[in-house]
């Protein structure tokens, strides 16, 4: 099971997450309490191993701004977390994660409209487009044939529920942000426990 830790804001947390087994780190360039700029991201990314996915999170951003940040910061995957159209998502030279808000089984039909590299299934929008710490009904994914699409499960995951979430949905990757924080800051101990629990499922033949 692959794990993405989103909302990274400093080098120490990034390195601790990787040391604990994170496969991807998310950097938020949209309106969020975890928002950073390309300079801050670049300083973190330059010390991260090449094989780690460095994901830039954007919401309804101008494509030229995204390309500029990708080049400046060293982002190698783009996560589009707004109302971006299939055409908008297909214009980039790096892999794209399209985030979709899921409330019901019908919402899964959105996946077939896009031809992206990954699909991040998140809870319905709150104050921000992500990182609100709320889950959706994972059972809507059971029995769904997603044609081998790489699904990233997000929305309200934590050390208390990640094993159950993986058991129900069998995603390609799980994504966490607020679920590994204490008092609004990344907690490296929670990150380690979360990754261990997610990867433990892999040892049992899942993911």
Summarize the structure in words.
This protein is an alpha/beta fold. The chain has a single domain (2-203), classed as Alpha-Beta Barrel (TIM Barrel). It is 27% helix and 20% strand. The chain has six helices and ten strands. The strands form two sheets. An eight-stranded parallel barrel has the order 1-2-3-4-5-6-7-8, surrounded by four helices. The chain has a two-stranded antiparallel ribbon with strand order 9-10. α2 runs parallel beside α3 (63-73) and α5 (162-169) packs parallel to α6 (188-203). The longest helix has 16 residues, at 188-203. The radius of gyration is 16 Å and the shape is globular.
Task: Give the topology.
Elements: E1 2-6, H1 11-19, E2 24-28, H2 38-45, E3 53-58, H3 63-73, E4 77-80, H4 86-89, E5 96-101, E6 118-122, E7 151-153, H5 162-169, E8 173-176, E9 181-182, E10 185-186, H6 188-203
Parallel strand pairs: 1-2, 1-8, 2-3, 3-4, 4-5, 5-6, 6-7, 7-8
Antiparallel strand pairs: 9-10
Helix pairs in contact: 2-3, 5-6
What keyword list fits this structure?
TIM Barrel, single chain, 10 strands, alpha/beta, eight-stranded parallel beta barrel, 6 helices, 207 residues, two-stranded antiparallel ribbon
């Amino acid at each position: 099971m692959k794990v993405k830790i989103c909302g990274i804001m400093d080098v120490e947390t990034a390195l601790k997450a990787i040391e604990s087994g994170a496969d991807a780190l998310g950097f938020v360039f949209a309106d969020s309490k975890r928002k950073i700029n390309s300079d801050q991201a670049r300083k973190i990314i330059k010390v991260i191993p090449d094989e780690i996915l460095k994901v830039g999170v954007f919401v309804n951003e101008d494509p030229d701004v995204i390309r500029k940040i990708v080049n400046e910061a060293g982002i190698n995957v783009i996560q589009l977390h707004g109302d971006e159209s299939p055409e908008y998502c297909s214009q980039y030279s790096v892999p794209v994660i399209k985030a979709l808000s899921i409330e019901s089984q019908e919402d899964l039909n959105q996946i077939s409209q896009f031809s992206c590299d990954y699909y991040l299934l998140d809870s319905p929008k709150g104050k921000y487009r992500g990182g609100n710490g709320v889950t959706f009904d994972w059972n809507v994914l059971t029995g769904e044939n997603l044609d081998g699409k790489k699904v990233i499960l997000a929305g309200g995951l934590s050390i208390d529920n990640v094993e159950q979430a993986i058991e129900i949905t069998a995603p390609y990757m799980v994504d966490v942000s607020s679920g590994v924080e204490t008092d609004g800051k990344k907690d490296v101990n929670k990150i380690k426990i979360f990754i261990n629990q997610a990867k433990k499922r892999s040892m049992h033949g899942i993911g």
